[in-house]
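Why do we bother with a discrete structure alphabet at all? Because it lets us treat a fold like text: something you can write down, compare, and reason about line by line. To make this less abstract, here is a complete entry for NAD-dependent succinate-semialdehyde dehydrogenase. Read it the way you would read a sentence in a foreign language you are learning: slowly, and without expecting to understand everything at once.
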Amino acid sequence: MTESREAALLEKVPHQLFIGGQWRDATGGRTLEVYDPATGASIKTIANASVEDAAAAMDAAADTQESWARTAPRVRGEILRRAFDLLQERADEFALLMTLEMGKPLAEARGEVGYGGEFLRWFSEEAVRIAGRYGSNPEGTGRMIVTQMPVGPSYLITPWNFPLAMATRKIAPALAAGCTAIVKPAELTPLTTLYFAKLLQEVGLPDGVLGVLTTSTSAAVSAPIIADPRLRKLSFTGSTPVGVSLLKQAADGVLRTSMELGGNAPFLVFEDADLDKAVEGALQAKFRNIGQACTAANRFIVHESVADEFARRVTERVAAMRVGRGTEEGVTIGPLINDTAVDKAVSLVQDAVQRGATVLTGGSRVAGAGSFYQPTVVTGVAAGSDILREEIFGPVLSIVTFTDEADAVAKANDTEYGLVGYVFTRDFARGQRLTETLQTGMMGLNVGVLSNAAAPFGGVKQSGIGREGGLEGIHEYLSTKYVLTPDP
Ligand code: NAD
């Protein structure tokens, strides 16, 4: 019964590229396989775009730009709003699809439909609020008009960890602003984006406004698009090394860029924290999405007086977590995206242990089919351990201690990343100080999850450039134009 439901859903998902409003095979008939990370089995064969397909997608985006920019903001907004409504109707399908291609537990996938959908609703409302200003120049000799124009054709590259939300977080503001777009999902999880493009087509998105390129050769397919002078914007979410390489390519065309890159989030627990809340926050900040979030708490930095109690309480909870396929009832820890991700968790924990850390629970890969790693807690992690420097991207909670606030802040900031920090304290003045001393683009004060379509998401340092969501999100796709007219 369940398997037939999965098969029926997979059958409905397009397997072709979406270019100029048409579904078509890749040039030369190239294909790629999409796998279920819980079983390792192929679940669908889809088109594998080449550079010729990239050129066709670029042509469509460029040819459609003018008419889409002229489409009334209300019309653009209403298309996004209808997409939001239809997504709610299909929430169960989108959730299951994400669980199948990415592995996250179904309940979390449903949560992502909620979160990802909100970008459609938020930007449907922002489309009609794009505004400028008008006034005299200081000399009183002319009128200054400041207006906002769509940047132009945009190339959107998304990662595999949030297949729907990372797509809607870019597509919705781009379309609301009047930009056409080409989206290139991660090759590991392309099905959600294909199914979402079909939904947009159904709610009346004009042909050519959005293209979808699925490919196993991302670098080769992306390079000519980024080099094309008709492209005006590159928005990327993914790892810092790939972001750096894309920024270099974008520099040649002086492209507008948004970069949502890696993180190494500190999670600070002060001696006065409400430990019950800190433990709840820790579990959310660490184990949501099986630890595979750029916002995942990577380093638990806990005051020495409460570290043992904090470790004891989180360990009790983590040891009770159920590992399995995300479609199974009660599972909270699904598979990692692939075996390479499991190998990374193995090596980070081994390195920490070799340098003196203690494993309180977990600490091993799970034998058998699929890419599973046990939910794990390690404590007493020595300075310099790889696990403190690299993104874990897995279900491993690693604890170090601090002595006072200055020590906590120094440890928290000791990373090239600066996406998000979490702070648990009852001292409001301290919380306020940390909003200024933590070198991050976002901070959760006594909360473990803070993403919201109404909030500006983004980082500082090597975590990126730009913000997605909130009032700021649409400005990533708008450019300011200033006009002067003589005194009337
Ligand atoms: P990745 O950098 O390997 O890939 C991201 C996307 O870029 C994928 O679509 C991939 O196919 C594509 N890509 C890879 N190499 C490319 C190239 N040379 N040219 C063009 N495209 C290329 O990252 P990932 O493994 O998919 O995602 C995990 C990373 O994403 C983590 O570092 C995580 O922190 C980060 N992330 C950041 C945010 C954020 O908002 N800051 C959100 C989610 C994930």
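What the structure line is telling us, in plain words: The pocket of nicotinamide-adenine-dinucleotide is lined by residues 157-161, 166, 184, 186-187, 218-219, 222, 237-239, 242, 245-246, 260-263, 294, 391, 419, 459, 464 (CB under 6 Å). Residues 265-445 form a domain with the Aldehyde Dehydrogenase; Chain A, domain 2 fold (CATH 3.40.309.10).
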